[in-house]
Amino acid sequence: MTGKRRKGGVLSDLMIPLIAIGILILFNLIRDPGFFSISLSTNNSGNAVLTGNLISIIDSASELAIIAMGMTLVTAATGGQDISVGAVGAITGSVFVQVLKGSGDITAGTVVLGFLACCLVTVLFTSFNGVLVAFFRIQPMIATLILFSCGRSIAYWITGSATPQLESPIIKAMGMTIPGIPVPTPIFMVILVGLLLLLFFKTSNIRLYTESVGINQGASRLNGINPTLIKLLSFIVLGVCVAVAGVISTCRLGQVSHKTLLIDIEMDAILAVAIGGNSLGGGRFRLSGSILGAYIIQMLTTTLYAMSVAPANVKAYKAIVIILIVVAGSPVIKTALSSFWHRLKNNRAGAVSREVN
Fold first, then answer.
1. At 40, which helix (H) or strand (E)?
2. What residue ranges do the domains of the chain occupy?
3. How many CB atoms neighbour CB 124 within 10 A?
4. Which CATH class is domain 61-308?
5. How far apart are CA 299 and CA 57, in angstroms?
6. How many angstroms separate the CA atoms of 326 and 296, rounded?
7. What dihedral angle (degrees, nearest 10) is formed by the CA atoms of 307, 313, 314, 317?
8. What share of the chain is helix, strand, coil (3-state, %, to 5)?
9. CA distances, 126 to each of 118, 178, 270, 281 (Å)
């Protein structure tokens, strides 16, 4: 019985993002029946790769999906959001490039070293945010406003005025496709991060502790949970996610630009969490919902570009659609729909009872 209720809860939480994806798919199929077609072609390096709008959507949303997973954890634990992830991602890219440039030849070993350096630096910066939120109890959006304002300047100090280029088959494989494998590498990274977080939750009580702290910090403390540690841990996990996304974006471009790397991704990550059915006030969360939210945002963007909407107008159209999705998933609408459904079921039951009598 518990399993059935749990399954029903999952479907209820994911109802809005699933409906949104369904509407976008239906709209695109009506507008262009071949919109989601996939083909196998050859890239400039002579390797076979999968192409098409569907592959482009899943691939382009990779960085957003990874950061949205980390943002979900921070939101659940603190009831707030980290708006500095884009700027910290720029720092990540700068550190990654500097490590590779400083080590001479780009090999598998130097790439691993660069990634570990990125993780360390990024976790230090997100931990700074975590300390402000967990220890000093500063509202998350205010605490992270510091790095949001100065993070890209720090990235500029690391790389200087140059825009370093990364020319290496390894970098191309990480940002695009591995020779012999037609699926873009960033898609595998999303799967890997998702599986690692799932394993993390399955082998520990972190999910339960995070939700408990987000729902009622005082009660969780009385039950032996350390809210400060849980909040700090959520920022550390977010830091690792930002490091992965920053490296992917840097490898995808083959260079780092402190001005454009992961630009505006913090707002999209927050929207992905909200669209995915997670409460922005903290508490219970679903990473699957946030991942769906990331793909919804990217599918919407791709659809607008396919309809020849001017780039300057894309954000306005996205805002309108996202407002509709968020409002449709709000507690007020959910309560109203649930009440209407129960009334409808009761009326049907009453009608059947009268017919039998």
1. strand 39-42
2. 61-308
3. 13
4. mainly alpha
5. 6
6. 12
7. -90
8. 75, 5, 25
9. 12, 31, 16, 20
**Amino acid at position 36, single letter:** F
Would you write out the chain's pLDDT as a tens digit for each of its 357 residues?
Answer: 344 444 455 556 788 888 889 999 999 999 999 999 999 998 877 788 999 999 999 999 999 999 999 999 999 999 999 999 999 999 999 999 999 988 778 899 999 999 999 999 999 999 999 999 999 999 999 999 999 999 999 999 998 767 778 889 999 999 999 999 999 999 999 999 999 999 999 999 999 999 999 999 999 999 999 999 999 999 999 999 999 999 999 999 988 888 899 999 999 999 999 999 898 889 999 999 999 999 999 999 999 999 999 988 988 888 888 788 778 777 787 788 778 878 887 877 666 666 666
Q: Which two tokens stand for residue 42?
A: 């050859």
CA 290/CA 14 separation, integer angstroms: 10
